[in-house]
Amino acid sequence: MQGIQRKIVYVTLYEGIAIVCASAGLAFTSDSGLMKAGVASVMASAIALVWNLVFNTAFEWWEARQAVRGRSVWRRVAHALGFEGGLGLILIPVFAWWLDVSLLQALGMEAGLMLFFLVYTFAFNWGFDRVFGLPASAAGAPPAAAAA
After folding, report:
1. 65 domain residue, yes or no
2. In terms of residue numbers, what domain contains 42?
């Protein structure tokens, strides 16, 4: 499976599983119930999607103006920290408000979600590639093309 079909299946499965897992975790850590935590997870997913578009647009605007081109390890670290830090600043007050918890408790929830998503993203991508095969960009040259 390749192209847009692969991307649609990927994002649908990724977000669906993430929402179920995050809902359970938020419900457990907030005592707010699964339904309310589920809404918080869907809100967080939607916010993360919008933040991804905004942050990456701003980051690429900044990146295009740098004298040094390319994406070094440090630039990738700055990107990851900027994205996750900004998302945390948005989600912490949302969790505190929606789940009726303190900002400190919401900070703990956000830290837990960051750790979860670090492991989940790695495991999901590995499993997805095992089930659906590698995308064309990572699959290497087909044998006929390599022989030509």
Report:
1. yes
2. 3-133
Output the CA torsion 59→9→34→122 (10° steps): -60
Residue 134's φ and ψ, nearest 5 degrees, are -75, 150
**Distance between CA 42 and CA 101 in Å, rounded?**
18
Which residue has 């897992």 as its token pair?
Answer: 21
Determine, yes or no, domain membership for 128: yes
Whether 145 maps to a domain, the answer reads no
The model's pTM: 0.78
Q: What is the residue-level pLDDT of the chain in tens, covering all 148 positions? A: 888 898 899 899 999 999 999 999 999 999 889 999 999 999 999 999 999 889 989 988 888 888 888 888 898 889 889 999 999 999 999 999 999 999 999 999 999 999 999 899 889 989 999 999 888 777 766 655 555 5
